[in-house]
Amino acid sequence: MCTGKCARCVGLSLIPLSLVCIVANALLLVPNGETTWTNHLSLQVWLMAGFIGGGLMILCPGISAVRAGGKGCCGAGCCGNRCRMLSSVFSSAIGVLGAIYCLSVSGTALRNGPKCLIDGKWDYHFQETGGSYLLNDTQWDLCESPPRVVPWNVTLFSLLVAASCLEIVLCGLQLVNATIGVFCGDCRKKEVH
Question: Do 188 and 2 touch, CB atoms closer than 8 A?
Answer without folding.
Answer: yes
